[in-house]
Structures are given as C-alpha cells and as structure tokens.
Design goal:
With 125 residues, the protein is mainly α. It has one domain (2-118). It has helices at 2-82, 87-102, 108-118. The longest helix is centred in the middle third of the chain and has 81 residues, at 2-82. The protein is rod-shaped, with a radius of gyration of 37 Å.
Length: 125
Amino acid sequence: MDQTLAGIVTAIAAIITPTVVFVMQRATAKKLDAFDQKREAARVEREAEERRTAEWQEAMTGGMRSMLRAELLHEYNKWTDRGYCPMESKEYVERTYNSYHALGGNGIGTSMYDEVMALPMGHED
C-alpha cells in the first residue's frame, strides 16, 4: 500500500508540478509586462516633458532676442541721429549686443552694433 500511495503522490506531483511552474512563469511574465509598460509610459512622459521644456526655452530665447534687438534698434536710432555715442553708452550697446548675439541674433543687429561703435565719442546734451 505504501508503494501504491507513493506512486499516486509521484503521479500527482508529475501532473501538478508543470502546471504550478507554468502558472508561476505566467505570473512572473505578467509582472514583467506590467513593469515594462510602466517603464515605457514613464519614458514617453519624460520625452514629452523634454519637448515641452525645449519649446518653452526656444520661446523664451526668441522673445529675449527680440527684446534685445529692439533695444539695439532704439540705441542705434538715438545715437546715429545725434552723430556721436559716449563711451558709457557704447559699453551698454556692447553688453546688449553680446547678449543678443549669444542668443543667436546676428545680421541687422550686428550692422547696428558696428555703426554705433564707429560713431565718435562726444558729450551727451
């Protein structure tokens, strides 16, 4: 009888063991899939946030560049109309231009800067 019982237990174990292993593997795979999905969702969100940040930075840079260009234009008009530019004002124009240029501004801003720097120094009225 002990051998019969041992045979039955062995048979049951032979049937149940693969099923238990299969169920455990399946549960593990589901957990891994859920983990992978969460990781992928986090990556997608991170990339979206990086795009939003880059767009915001580009808007801020463009806006600041436009404001600096407007200030260069104002200084250019003021000093070319007067025909001279004092040293303190040239220093201000230079700082403004350097910031403008560092933000990617060039072209007309460079021309205005060069013309103001070429003006003789005189006294403000």
